[in-house]
Structure formats: structure tokens, C-alpha cells
């Protein structure tokens, strides 16, 4: 009989960090460890690939608690009381337990909330005007009930997106705090941080700027004789959820930690706030839009594991049309499945003790605290925004992010990698690009520049009724030609061109002759480096002898690029090629060919 008390794995000796490094160094065969295995995040933090008992990891305190009563929000447009109520009741019937009413016009509270059980359903309101009269009606209607949710008067979000701070909203907020004092689970102050991440900021910036705006607003409300305890007990934070799964988990935990630190500076040890996490605009796509469902799922998972109180998932098609019943239902189902079937929210702080997440959390908290202190030392949130320092810092990170996307070093399915070539999309849905206003923040998709490039293709198709054809002409080494044809297929497919499957030829001369005579507009040479050394020049010369108009590219990085360019090669596509620059150049050459054919 086996010994049930035997320690598992006792026959295996532990592996030290030194032993692990020796083995990894040997396996890397001279490659740089930091470059290959250490992940360098745009927050300025480097994350190690492995952790063991020898690592000393700081475990943050006050990282929040996994919500046992997670609010699954849906945003509802309240054009009038009846339509808003109908949409809310439909959402509740579909399993939603939180409604965010977008208050477009003045509506009757009684009509809007008719049939909604305020003891079980959280109701929140984004108010653009008449906040005080509406709230008076709300608290009167909710008398005797456990009103839960928040009011968003657009105070901080309105300022950072327009550049105009509405001082009157401070008075409004002070009055809202007084009006809702009998409802501790209903928050009268919403501070939004979504605009930072959706404008291209990193996680450290989102935390630091949000907390800095908190300090700014706290000081403003203190001038209105609102106690600090009342302020912190009435706080709801709206934060966006980005693409980097583990970093986003760490971000929410770090935010809770630093919020407690800020409160401590105001001599507060105990207060009650909420955090509502919203799927980001930045990460979403119009092309292959169904992939947004996957992005929303991982974003929601990260937020819940990061200990938020509520989650708002936008429908996957929200970026390009009015959301359908189907897309709204699916969005709500994501959180329901995570909560009820995957048991998220059922376990108290499931990520606590994970070396990796603890390090991510502590490093983000450390960096965010540094930035927060720098802002406060330089005059605080308002001064830094008025001087455009915050905008400039975000712009620097945004440009780095866009560069990584354009270089395909940050892969985004359906945008810069793995395009759906079967998809037909209207040019009108695609972006024309964006002109950034350096004085304000502009929430946007990361894909706008690539969308603008794709729009050029769709407009060309609409104008000529012909979609440019790309031929992948391969020969030589079987393995390499297949690999490079697959790469080119994926790379050029982002443009919206009709990329045909690889065509194999007996040799370079046959490939050049046949592809030059084909109906394609773009030809990509696909073979091995050895084949290129021997026959690429011959291919280009033979091709150009027959056709001088087609765009001729080569998949790879040949040594004799200058010689190939001199005899007629238009360019190369490889791992280092910038997708936006390269495809825009190809488009211009194709457009010239189309115009010459019209003449």
C-alpha cells in the first residue's frame, strides 16, 4: 500500500535559478537572454520569464476583493422614459443585473424605472445636464429601497476630451453627494480613467492620471465644505480594460492599492468605493469584427480577476453600427458565463500569491506612484493638463504602440495579422485616418491608420469594380517557398487585395515568365535565400522584359537588394517590414497602373 502522507515530488531535486539560467543560456545558443525571453512592456517594466522560491516578491496590500456580487452592466440609451425602460427590462430578462442609462433627454424617473427592482438591480446614470432635478426625483422614487449604482456627471471625462473644465459641475457634484447621503451603495461621484487608455496611454499612466484627478476633485469639493469621508465613500471609478491580460489584472490590483495610499494621506483608513471596468475602444476592430468577442472575453476576465465591482462589455459591432439585439445579448452573456459557469467572482482573490501577478502588480504600483508624485509636485492634475504635459506623455506612448502595431510586433487579429480575406467591407465603415488634437484626449481605435489604408483599397474597388489581384509565385526549396508564401499571403491580405493561393513553378525563369503574363496586379517572389542568391536577379530581369507595370515584390531579406532594385524589384516583405508603409506604397503603384489602363 502506498504511503498517502508521502510528500509529492520528494524524489525530484529542486532547480535553482543558477541551474535554470545555465540551461537556458545553453539552449539559446548565444542569443541575448534579455532580448529573447524578458518581456519589455511600454510601462517601462521588464517582466522575467520564470519565478521560483528564490525570488523575493513584494505582495501588495489593499488590492481589493473579488466581488461576490459582480454587476454585469449594459448601456441603454434613454431617448425617452418608455424606450429606455423597455430596453432595460429586456436586458434584465436576459440576465443583466446592472443598467447604465445614457440620459440623452429629460425623462420621467418613474417611467424610466418602472418595473425594475432597485433592491436587486444596479441602476447608473450618465447625465449631461439637469443632474440635480433628476437626482431629486430619483431619491424620492427610491425611498425605502436599497438603491445601488452611480451617477456620472461627465466632470473629468468631459474636461479631458474638450479641454474645458466646467466649474459648475463641482457645485452639482457637491449637491449630488448631499442628495444621495441616505444611499451608501449609490455613488454620486464618477471619475473616469477610460479616456487615457483609449487615447493610447499605458497602464501606469491610466492609474496615475486617474488618482491625480481624484486629488484635484477632492480639493475642489473640500472648498465646498464636503468632508473627505463623504467624498471617498461616494467614489465610483470607470477604468478601461486593455489587451495585455496579466498586466491588466495587475493594473486593477495596483489601483486599489494606491487608492488606499491616497486615502491614507487624507487620514482615511476605511471608505467604500466601487470600480466599474469597461472594455476598451482602443483594442477593437471593424475588420473581422467577431474577433472583438475574444478581446472582450479576455478583457472581462482580467478585470474580474483584478477585483472590480462591475463590468461593462460593449457589443462587438458597436464601433461601426447600432448594436443589434444579438450583439448586445452576446456581450452580456460573456460576463454571465464567466461568473456562473467559470466561477469568476466565486473565489476570494484567486490570483493572490501568484509570483508573476504579484510582481506585475507591485511594479505597476511602484511606477504609477512615481508618476503620480511627479504630477503632484509639478502643480497637480489641472496644471499638468492645462500645460499639455499629460497629453504629451500619452502621445509618446500612443506613437510607440502604433509603431509596434504597424511593424506587426503587436499582433492584432484581423487588423495587422491573419486578415479575413473572405470578408467584404464597405469603405464608408472604415476610418479616413485621424488628426490628433494635442490639447485634448481623443478615444480611438488603435487600428485607425491601417483602416485608412484599407479604405483606399475599397474606394479603388468601388471606383473600378475590380479588386487588385496578388499572385504568389514560388519556386525552389519547398519548405522555404511555402513558408514565405504563407507569410506574404498574411502580410498583403491586410490591404484588402485579392491574394491568391501560392502557385509553384519549376524554376525561376518559368515563374517569372508565367507571372508576368498573368492577370495579377502584384506579384510576390517566394523562395529560399539560396535560390534568391542564384536566380532572383534573373527572375526580375525576365519579368520586367515582359511587363513593366505590375508591382513586383520579394518575400524575404535578400543580400543583393540594391542590385534587385536596380533591375526592377519594387520592394520586399519580411518580418522587419512596416505593414502600413509597405502596403500604402504598393497601393499607390497599383493605383497608377489602374489609371494608365483607364487612359
Structural account:
This protein has 599 residues and is α/β, with parallel strands linked by helices. The chain has 22 helices and 17 strands. The chain has helices spanning 17-28, 33-37, 81-93, 109-112, 131-141, 155-162, 168-179, 194-198, 203-223, 228-233, 245-265, 291-305, 325-340, 355-377, 381-386, 389-406, 448-464, 478-493, 508-517, 529-546, 561-566, 579-598; strands spanning 39-40, 46-47, 71-78, 98-103, 122-127, 149-152, 186-187, 189-192, 235-241, 274-279, 310-312, 469-474, 498-499, 503-504, 522-526, 551-555, 571-573. The protein has a nine-stranded parallel sheet with strand order 7-6-5-4-3-11-10-9-8. Strands 12, 13, 14, 15, 16 and 17 form a six-stranded parallel sheet that branches. A hairpin with a 5-residue loop joins β1 (39-40) and β2 (46-47). The longest helix has 23 residues, at 355-377. The protein is globular, with a radius of gyration of 28 Å. It starts with 16 loop residues before the first helix and ends with a helix.
Amino acid at each position: 500500500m502506498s504511503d498517502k502522507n508521502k510528500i509529492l515530488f520528494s524524489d525530484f531535486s529542486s532547480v535553482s535559478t543558477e541551474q535554470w539560467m545555465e540551461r537556458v543560456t545553453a539552449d539559446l545558443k548565444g542569443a541575448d537572454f534579455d532580448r529573447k525571453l524578458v518581456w519589455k512592456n511600454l510601462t517601462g517594466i521588464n517582466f522575467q520569464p520564470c519565478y521560483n522560491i528564490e525570488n523575493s516578491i513584494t505582495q501588495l496590500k489593499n488590492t481589493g476583493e473579488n466581488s461576490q456580487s459582480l454587476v454585469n452592466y449594459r448601456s441603454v440609451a434613454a431617448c425617452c422614459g418608455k424606450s429606455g425602460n423597455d430596453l432595460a427590462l429586456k436586458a434584465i430578462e436576459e440576465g443583466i443585473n446592472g443598467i447604465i442609462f445614457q440620459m440623452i433627454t429629460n425623462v420621467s424617473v418613474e417611467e424610466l424605472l418602472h418595473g425594475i427592482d432597485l433592491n436587486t438591480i444596479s441602476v447608473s446614470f450618465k447625465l449631461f445636464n439637469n443632474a440635480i432635478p433628476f437626482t431629486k426625483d430619483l431619491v424620492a422614487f427610491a425611498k425605502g429601497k436599497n438603491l445601488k449604482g452611480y451617477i456620472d456627471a461627465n466632470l473629468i471625462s468631459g474636461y479631458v476630451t474638450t479641454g474645458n473644465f466646467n466649474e459648475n459641475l463641482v457645485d452639482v457634484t457637491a449637491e449630488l453627494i448631499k442628495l444621495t447621503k441616505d444611499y451608501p451603495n449609490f455613488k454620486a461621484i464618477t471619475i473616469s480613467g477610460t479616456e487615457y487608455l483609449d487615447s493610447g496611454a499605458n497602464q501606469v499612466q491610466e492609474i496615475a492620471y486617474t488618482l491625480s484627478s481624484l486629488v484635484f476633485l477632492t480639493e475642489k469639493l473640500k472648498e465646498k465644505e464636503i468632508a473627505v469621508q463623504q467624498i471617498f465613500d461616494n467614489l465610483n471609478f470607470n477604468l478601461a480594460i486593455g489587451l495585455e491580460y496579466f498586466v491588466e489584472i495587475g493594473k486593477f490590483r495596483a489601483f486599489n492599492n494606491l487608492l488606499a495610499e491616497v486615502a491614507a494621506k487624507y487620514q482615511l483608513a476605511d471608505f467604500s468605493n466601487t470600480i466599474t471596468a469597461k472594455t476598451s475602444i482602443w483594442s477593437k476592430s471593424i475588420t473581422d469584427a467577431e474577433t472583438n468577442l475574444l478581446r472582450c472575453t479576455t478583457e472581462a476576465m482580467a478585470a474580474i480577476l483584478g477585483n472590480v465591482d462591475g463590468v461593462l462589455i460593449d457589443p462587438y459591432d458597436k464601433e461601426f453600427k447600432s448594436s443589434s439585439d444579438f450583439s448586445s445579448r452576446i456581450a452580456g452573456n460573456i460576463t454571465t458565463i464567466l461568473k456562473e459557469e467559470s466561477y469568476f467572482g466565486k473565489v476570494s482573490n484567486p490570483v493572490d500569491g501568484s509570483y508573476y501577478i504579484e510582481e506585475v502588480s507591485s511594479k505597476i504600483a511602484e511606477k504609477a506612484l512615481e508618476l503620480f508624485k511627479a504630477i503632484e509636485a509639478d502643480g497637480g492634475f489641472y496644471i499638468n493638463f492645462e500645460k499639455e504635459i499629460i497629453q504629451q506623455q500619452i502621445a509618446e506612448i500612443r506613437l510607440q504602440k502604433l509603431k509596434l502595431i504597424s511593424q506587426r510586433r503587436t499582433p492584432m487579429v484581423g487588423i495587422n495579422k491573419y486578415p479575413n480575406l473572405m470578408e467584404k467591407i464597405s469603405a464608408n465603415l472604415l476610418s479616413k485616418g485621424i488628426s490628433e488634437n494635442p490639447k485634448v484626449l481623443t478615444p480611438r481605435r488603435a487600428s485607425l491608420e491601417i483602416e485608412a489604408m484599407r479604405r483606399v483599397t475599397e474606394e479603388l474597388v468601388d471606383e473600378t469594380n475590380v479588386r487588385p489581384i496578388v499572385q504568389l509565385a514560388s519556386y525552389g526549396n519547398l519548405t522555404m517557398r511555402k513558408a514565405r508564401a504563407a507569410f506574404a499571403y498574411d502580410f498583403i491580405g491586410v490591404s484588402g487585395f485579392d491574394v491568391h493561393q501560392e502557385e509553384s513553378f519549376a524554376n525561376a525563369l518559368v515563374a517569372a515568365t508565367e507571372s508576368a503574363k498573368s492577370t495579377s496586379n502584384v506579384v510576390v517572389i517566394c523562395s529560399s535565400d539560396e535560390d534568391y542568391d542564384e536566380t532572383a536577379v534573373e527572375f526580375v530581369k525576365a519579368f520586367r522584359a515582359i511587363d513593366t507595370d505590375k508591382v513586383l515584390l520579394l518575400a524575404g531579406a535578400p543580400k543583393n537588394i540594391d542590385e534587385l532594385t536596380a533591375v526592377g524589384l519594387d520592394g520586399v516583405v519580411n518580418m522587419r517590414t512596416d505593414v502600413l508603409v509597405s502596403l500604402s506604397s504598393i497601393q499607390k503603384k497599383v493605383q497608377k497602373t489602374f489609371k494608365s489602363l483607364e487612359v
